[in-house]
Give the backbone structure.
Amino acid sequence: MDNLIIANRTFRSRLMVGTGKFASNAAMVAAMEGSGCEIVTVALRRVDIDNPHDSILAHIDREKYLLLPNTSGARDAEEAVRLARLARAAGCEPWVKLEVTPDPFYLLPDPIETLKAAEILVKDGFVVLPYINADPVLAKRLQEAGTATVMPLGAPIGTNKGVRTRDSIAIIIEQAIVPVVVDAGLGAPSHAAEAMEMGADAVLVNTALAVARDPGLMGQAFRKGVEAGREAWLAGLGKQQDRAAASSPLTGFLHN
Amino acid sequence: MTEGNNNMQLTINGKPTETTAGSTIQNLLDQLRLDCRQVVVERNRDIVPRQRFGEEVLADGDTLEIVHFVGGG
């Protein structure tokens, strides 16, 4: 079986799904089911004391899905560590998608604070999946610090632009000793397939599913994209070249 | 009702809030109609383990963060 293994835990699906921005909980659940995902991300926020509503957990089957809390909203390492510990106190397994994004316009991760937080959280027993820019040197440093994956961005969060950081992600994959999860910016199943064809171990998608007219169907489409890309990678893709190379025999033409 | 001797001031999620003196965290959550299984509470920056909600008595001036999971990527 071609399984994804993160921190000694085995997953059949290579597609992780974010739960933000869905029009309804039903749409979110449809996307999760359509995608076949086994890992879903959630965020931690203040309860609206004046208008409390149901926790999202009421809609996520914890037997079926591993909850991966993120540290979104953290502007530095200290805030990220605080959020991770709060999430663990909520009764989650100590897995965390580490994100430190002080810049509100492009939501690009702060590499220095991310590394700092990763070192603290790894020592504290967390399984750390850090969201990073596609920086191969940073990816290496994080792996040395003991992170369970690296999660380089394809393009800024929510932009649907695809794998714009392709060349750097290729280097990260080449050098990786932990699974590489391409996260952010994947707007179409073809983008997910592209990342997987390059040898990424998994991808994480949220916006593309949340904004789809039919999130369940889009979940299925991404599942197929991820599976197609993975199978192509395993099968071995042909090399690109500039000159044509005939597929039909170059002998026995009628004009010879 | 101007004495306020029976009340204490808390800051919850950044907002000043009044509650009965001697309340535990569990009392406060009940008052706010929050399910204790779905929230995490930080008191003066320290996480309070859920099993201590019933015994942890709040003090005047405490700052609380009450958080829960929401959708996120």
The longest helix of chain B spans residues 25-31. Chain B touches chain A through 25 residues (CB under 8 Å).
